[in-house]
Design a protein that fits this description.
Layout lengths: L25 H12 L6 H8 L6 H55 L2 H19 L6 H6 L15 H4 L3 H10 L2 E4 L17 H9 L7 H11 L4 E5 L5 H19 L10 E4 L3 H21 L7 E4 L9 H6 L3 E4 L1 H9 L10 E4 L2 H5 L4 H8 L7 E6 L4 H10 L4 E5 L9 E7 L5 H8 L7 E4 L3 H13 L4 E4 L5 H12 L5 E4 L1 H4 L9 E4 L6 H8 L9 E7 L5 H13 L6 H4 L4 H4 L21 H18 L4
Parallel strand pairs: 2-7, 2-8, 3-5, 3-6, 4-5, 6-7, 9-14, 10-12, 10-13, 11-12, 13-14
Antiparallel strand pairs: 1-8
The structure holds adenosine-5'-triphosphate.
Adenosine-5'-triphosphate binds next to helix 10.
Length: 627
């Protein structure tokens, strides 16, 4: 490598080789370049100094020429960059203006829209957001593998030919006659007589003996739909016979499977019915057992075994069913998961899955349990969801989890049973207990009194016992034995009054309850609908008295007012006086998509608020390492 040239003016200066290219530091090159481009960026004095640097030698002249060429190139680049920059600024300006334009237009449009339309838009956006956040209701394995079934399950059941031959218009006329609203592709026909549903004779006889002679509207459409193997969502008011709509098909499927190959130890179930409470599960189980016994007693049908799978009971008592193979399991989620995980039950042969009070089940707390149960299914099954109060949010969510489902709707989801006479009374908090005694005189027993507070339930029972009223109490903190005793003694007429928390009694069917007293109005109108629905069942009339006072929120009172209006009930003066801000804005009354309440929109739904509160609390626990 040649020695580095000495700087001009030093003693060691020598002639530089012709091919020598001097090294010019980057900073200098850049400065020279900028100066050449026009000197815009540097003061004049500095420019002169840089250019007069080494220009006495040939090498520095050549270096300077190279720099000139590079400077030109870079100048062109800079000019191009400037042009792009200018263009960008121009475009940004236009975009900004365009955005302002759009905003202005939207403001004008919004001004034209009514408050109700704006609220509806807001709700739709919120709902879409919720839907995106929800995972499909399927087993973890199915979700992970992306398993997607496209066809409904097949069964051998066919409607009789004279029903099949009815035109779609004739079938629709039957639905309209019974106020059945249906959604879904290629629906099975509505059938107005049990005999036409090809139900085995011993079962028809059994049902008739219980006063069940003609199907109720949900049964008219729901039973043929379930018999056909279709997934379905069944919504009908309290006491309208939903239980039979899903237990009969479980029995029919079991009969079909048993006829093909008798069940042996470890096999089954064919049908799985999940309920949100132990009491409801027991009641449904007892209904199944009674129907299976009726079939067996006839002699022409095989024995079908049912199993009750709920917390608080000794499963060894049902060892016989487990040992010989079980056809139908009625369960609450917790105990069922336990049995499935321990391998005492499996879902390998299960073809029929039904969730009663499904909205409760999917509501926070149960959703993960249901998913966990579903992860035990290896094959496709028919899935049915039932409730009296299934808000739109759950319906939409469920729809995407079912296969080509049929939605059978009798009345608005969340509407009260029209056979219940609803009386709402303003009773001061301190006067409630005393007034309760007077209120009990309205009808003969049996009477149910509801309060959502466990302590209050105990207080009411104690007070009634002191006053000589035969009362039992049931709530979540009672032992299983206490709960069973309360229900048994009330059902059999041993006790006149049952004091209950709403949760413990959902879906329970007691014989001819005369009067329901809602001692404390629940915050969520859905709960109220379920509570008053313990009376006025299977076409009979009942009375419901509800106490409200200063402690009842205006929002709840508004929901109540609309529910009374919808059910054509008498509306007390103090409820009439409550104004609905949405009504003043000319809003159309639609049920809140989360809870079905008519008195509010999604943005002020108490149920959604409660869900959010629970979620936030759970997250806070998680963040704080509470788990
Ligand atoms: N077709 C029918 N004719 C007369 N009574 C019936 C009929 N179907 C069912 N029932 C009776 O009506 C009562 C209420 O039925 P069920 O418990 O199935 O109501 P539900 O719709 O499930 O109510 P809930 O929403 O409160 O759970 C029961 O005692 C049942 O035996």
């Amino acid at each position: 490598m040649p020695p580095a040239p000495a700087a001009k003016g030093t003693e060691d200066a020598y002639d530089v080789p012709a091919d020598y290219k001097p090294y010019v530091p980057v900073a200098k090159r850049r400065a020279a370049l900028l100066a050449q481009v026009g000197g815009r960026h540097l003061p004049q004095a500095k420019k002169v100094k840089l250019l007069s640097g080494d220009n006495s030698t040939q090498a520095s002249r050549e270096g300077s020429a190279a720099l000139d060429a590079e400077a030109e190139r870079q100048a062109a680049d800079e000019a191009e960059m400037e042009r792009v920059e200018r263009e960008k600024t121009r475009r940004e300006k236009t975009l900004l203006q365009a955005a302002q334009e759009v905003r202005r237009k939207k403001e004008i449009e919004d001004a034209r829209k009514s408050e109700a339309e704006k609220e509806a838009e807001k709700e739709a956006a919120l709902l879409a957001e919720m839907e995106r956040a929800q995972k499909k209701l399927a087993g973890a394995q199915e979700l992970a593998h992306g398993t997607a079934y496209t066809d409904s399950m097949k069964t051998s059941w066919r409607p009789p030919h004279y029903i099949r031959n009815l035109s779609p218009e004739e079938q629709q006329a039957v639905r309209e006659k019974h106020a059945i609203i249906l959604e879904g592709e290629d629906p099975p026909p509505a059938i107005e007589h049990f005999a036409d549903m090809k139900i085995p004779k011993p079962l028809l006889k059994y049902l008739s003996g219980k006063g069940i002679k003609t199907p109720s509207p949900i049964q008219i459409q729901g039973i043929p739909t379930a018999f056909s193997g279709r997934d379905m969502i069944g919504i009908a008011f309290t006491g309208s016979g939903k239980t039979l709509t899903f237990t009969l098909p479980a029995i029919m499927q079991s009969l079909e499977m048993e006829a093909k190959l008798p069940f042996t130890r470890g096999e089954g179930p064919v049908g799985l019915i999940i309920c949100p409470s132990r009491e409801l599960a027991r009641q449904t189980y007892e209904g199944c057992v009674a129907m299976c016994d009726a079939l067996k007693a006839d002699g022409d049908y095989p024995e079908l075994r049912s199993l009750l799978c709920i917390g608080g009971i000794n499963m060894a008592d049902q060892a016989d069913a487990l040992n010989r193979g079980v056809h139908i399991v009625v369960a609450t989620p917790g105990r069922l998961i336990d049995m499935l995980e321990k391998g005492r039950l499996n879902a390998n042969n299960c073809k029929y899955l039904c969730m009663d009070e499904a909205d409760r089940m999917i509501d926070m707390g149960f959703e993960e349990d249901v998913r966990s149960i579903m992860s035990h299914f290896k094959y496709q099954r028919q899935t049915l969801l039932f409730s009296a109060t299934m808000p739109r949010k759950i319906q939409d969510f469920a729809q995407q989890s079912l296969i080509n489902p049929i939605l059978v709707n009798v009345g608005r989801a969340g509407a009260a049973n029209m056979d219940v006479i609803q009386e709402v009374e303003y009773v001061k908090q301190e006067a409630k207990m005393v007034y309760l005694l007077e209120c009990l005189q309205k009808t003969p027993p049996p009477v149910i009194i509801f309060s959502d507070n466990k302590n209050e339930v105990d207080d009411i029972q104690e007070y009634l016992l002191l006053k000589g009223v035969e009362a039992v109490a049931i709530h979540g903190s009672k032992t299983q034995d206490e709960r069973e005793y309360a229900i048994r003694s009330f059902k059999t007429g041993g006790k006149d009054v049952m004091v209950a928390s709403g949760v413990a009694s959902k879906g329970l069917d007691f014989n001819e309850i005369q009067h329901v007293i809602v001692y404390t109005m629940p915050k969520e109108i859905e709960d109220y609908v379920h509570e008053i629905g313990r009376t006025g069942r299977s076409g009979k009339t009942g009375v419901a008295t509800t106490f409200v006072n200063m402690n009842t929120s205006e929002q709840t009172l508004l929901d109540l007012k609309y529910l009374l209006m919808e059910a054509k009930q008498k509306i007390p003066e103090f409820l009439l006086d409550i104004d609905d801000p949405r009504a003043a804005q000319g809003g159309v009354l639609r049920g809140c998509p989360v809870c079905g309440g008519l008195g509010h929109g999604l943005s002020d739904c108490p149920k959604l608020e409660e869900e959010m509160r629970r979620k936030t609390a759970a997250n806070a626990r998680y963040d704080g390492g509470g788990y």
